[in-house]
Specification:
With about 300 residues, the chain is of the alpha/beta class. The chain contains eleven helices and eight strands. It has a single domain, classed as Rossmann fold (3-Layer(aba) Sandwich). Helices cover about 40% and strands about 20% of the residues. The protein has an eight-stranded mixed β-sheet with strand order 1-2-4-3-5-6-7-8, with helices on both faces. Strand 7, helix 10 and strand 8 form a beta-alpha-beta unit. The longest helix is centred in the first third of the chain and has 19 residues.
């Protein structure tokens, strides 16, 4: 195991000290605190602005689901990348992920579309998933009325919990998805992977916090094994996939196991592992800029093969 970059180690110590202090004071976690935490970290560490030629705020066709569309080269017909943000099914939004969405559009030269799917605990499983399904099914109809040129080819990307949603969509609708990008994805709601024990605390995302997220998401005794993309049936025409994992991440084994399943099935797939990174490192870009740049290059190369 490689050492973390010094900048990340220093910040992580202060982050863990703050968590320990909150626990000593008996301050329980709340959805509001979790949302504020992700928003604050992203705002603090993803600071350089990437200008995109055209940005549209609208709704998914026929629904009230907000979406934001980033077209990096309006003079060209570009393929589409539906990006589903992470946040434990509880946090994140179009606004929080705006700087990351801009980077994806710029580097991939795809029309990136993000959606504000419904979040738990106010909207438990499967409401957020339903919104993402609608986003995929109505994507072309959403773009048609707008003054932008596009190719009717849709790829999916998702980080963390967004990876779970993206993988589920790819399994259920493989004919609608060209390629799949999973960024440190959360794919197992049953806690079956060893890395959840080996890296259970001290690395931003902690196993106990994941359990809390999932308990807010699944409120009616749903079968979590059946809901987990890691155990879902992989269609023979599963889209080509790339997985990005991090070495100091408690859910890293979920991505690795999914990659192994794809390899066995014969699906075109690649795996990029950053052994010195933590979960959510794209939200910490100013601390680990080289790793983030390498990640965006990897995604671009995968989506735009020479």
């Amino acid at each position: 195991m490689a050492d973390m970059p010094t900048s990340l180690q220093i910040w992580l110590k202060s982050f863990n000290d703050a968590l320990a202090e909150a626990k000593q004071l008996g301050i329980p976690p709340t959805p509001e605190m979790a949302r504020l935490g992700l928003a604050t970290i992203t705002q603090q560490f993803v600071t350089s602005r990437v200008d995109i030629s055209r940005v549209f705020d609208t709704h998914i066709h026929g629904t009230s689901i907000p979406c934001r569309i980033y077209h990096p080269s309006p003079e060209h017909e570009l393929p589409i990348l539906l990006f589903i943000h992470g946040g434990g099914h509880m946090c994140g939004s179009i606004e929080v992920y705006d700087p990351i969405s801009r980077r994806l559009a710029h580097h991939s030269q795809h029309i990136v579309v993000t959606i504000d799917y419904r979040l738990s605990p106010e909207h438990p499983y499967p409401k957020g998933l339903v919104d993402c399904i609608m986003g995929l099914e109505e994507m072309i109809n959403t773009l048609k009325p707008l003054p932008i040129a596009f190719e009717p080819t849709i790829s999916l990307a998702g980080d963390s919990a967004g990876g779970a949603l993206a993988a589920t969509l790819a399994q259920r609708n493989p004919d609608s998805v060209d390629k799949l990008v999973l960024i440190y994805p959360s794919l197992d709601y049953t806690f079956s992977c060893e890395s959840l024990i080996d890296y259970r605390e001290g690395f931003i995302l902690e196993t106990a916090k994941i359990q809390w997220y999932f308990d807010q998401y699944f409120q009616l005794g749903e079968n979590r094994h059946e809901a987990s993309p890691l155990f879902g049936a992989l269609p023979s025409n599963h889209p080509a996939t790339t997985l990005i994992t991090a070495g100091f991440d408690p859910i890293q084994d979920e991505g690795k196991r999914y990659f192994e399943r794809l390899q066995i099935l014969g699906v075109e797939s690649t795996h990029q592992h950053f052994d010195d990174m933590t979960h959510a490192f794209l939200n910490l870009e100013d601390l680990v800029s080289e790793h983030c740049a390498a990640t965006y290059r990897h995604i671009s190369d995968f989506l735009n093969p020479q």
